[in-house]
Every structure is written in C-alpha cells, then in structure tokens.
Specification:
alpha/beta, CBS-domain, 2 domains, 3-stranded mixed beta sheet, 7 strands, about 60% helix, about 15% strand
Amino acid sequence: MRILKARGVDIHINPFFLLMLLMYASVGLLSEMMFAFWVVILHELAHVVVAGGLGWKVKRIELLPFGGVVEFDEAFYGTPESEIAISLAGPIHNLIFAGLVLALLQREILPPGFGEFVFELNLAMGLFNLLPAIPLDGGRVARALLSNSVGVARATAIAVNIGRIVGFVMLAFGVYLVFAGEGNIFLPSLGGFLMFAASRESEKVLYMRIQDSLRKKERLIREGSMRAEVIASYEQTPLVEVVRKFSPGKVSIVMVLDGSLNILGFVTEVAVLEGMGRYGPRIPIRRIVR
C-alpha cells in the first residue's frame, strides 16, 4: 500500500507491517511500534544514501516488519560490490546507532527504560538483517559474494532457500513457545512472513539470469574475450527453458536443431534475451533463428 511519494520515489508499507502496528496498538504498545516504524525508515534511508552515492536511482521503497526493500532503476545492472555496499548500509547504521545509545546509557544521559528499548531494537534489527537469507540484507550480501562463482540466478536461489529455512525455524519455534505459554505471536508471525517474502523473491530468479547475461556483456567488452559454450536446443523449446541452461562466466551460443538433428542455425545469448523481450518467454526458439 503506497503511503507517500517523495522526489519520484514511491514509499509503500507492507500490509503485514500495518497489521502488526494495529495488533500492538490493541495491547497498549502503539508508541513502541511507532518508534520501531521510524527505526525501519532510518534503516532504509541508510540504503538510499549509499545507493545515491554510487549513482543508483531509487524507484520504490517497501517497509517490512524487519526492515524493507529498496528497488532501483538500475537493479539489473549493478555490480556485486555495489550490492554488498548498499545491503550492508542498513545493518551497519543500526549497529552504530545501537552503540551510540549504549554509550549514552552508560553515561546516564538517556532514561534507562527508553534507552534500553532503542538499544535492543537497533541491535536486533541490525543482527537479524545480517542473516544470509533473502529477503534480508545479509541474503543479498551472500548472493553478491556467490554470484561470481555460481551466477546471480543460482546465488539468489541459494539465499532464498536459506530464507525459507530460517522462516520455518522461526515459525515452528515461535508456535512451540506460544503453546508452552512462554511467547507471543510476534516470532511465528515474523517467521511466516519471512517464508512468504523469500518465496516472492524466488519469482525473480529468471530476471537474475538476465542480469547474469548483462554482466557477461560488460565483462566481454572490458576484457576483450571470454570463454564460450555451445548449447544444443530442439527447435520447439521455449526461450525461457533455453535461458535456464546458460552458465555463469561463459557466453552461451545456442545451436538450434530440428527433429532429425539437422542444424537450423545458431542464436546468441543476447538474441535469446531480446527474443524474450519482444515475443515473450514461451515462444519456441525456432522463431528467432535467422
């Protein structure tokens, strides 16, 4: 749900986050949750500031219970190094802020109750977001670190699966605590949402494969040459299935064959991507052979 548009940036609040605000308001904790809301906003602004310094244009911000998601116009053109820098900005902000609050508490500048709440909230948000699980910031760092060896698509799938596992553990443990009378619904709710958000991120794996191909193009231009591989494809194979066979670090050339294994022609990796954009992902590769 969009709540604001500032300087061309759409700011959305996830319905689950709104539900949590209402839930905590019903038990008299609205002021704490409203402060948590601003902590999340500052967390996201840290991402935005670093992204702006790297020349990325922010398109959309979605506020989630554990942080948020920043979408960029250049999402498919960023380098792993820039993704790491942008992803770490939020957790580092939280940890630095927690350290400052702790120093003020030790000098008795802040009231103990409020200061401890702010310290624990920032510490928890910073550490939790460092878990190597998409959609958390740590998951995006893990994806960037793995992308050079296994490709962006495979790295995304790995981090998404970790996100699902972490979410399931939180959900199961939270439910156990609720039935044992030692917890509330916050932990299982957060675990369930993490599983949902990770699954939603998995839908972007195809676009990560496109990002892989764009990086290959940049690398080829930069280095002058790259290793290549030839992929044999039946003429009726949909383009989206051909894309799944592309390997990271190698330029793929598709040899298109008919039912008698006669060569109909060759198609480059870029031509396959352009064909998907022009005709759709399900058209047979025969259609783009010249």
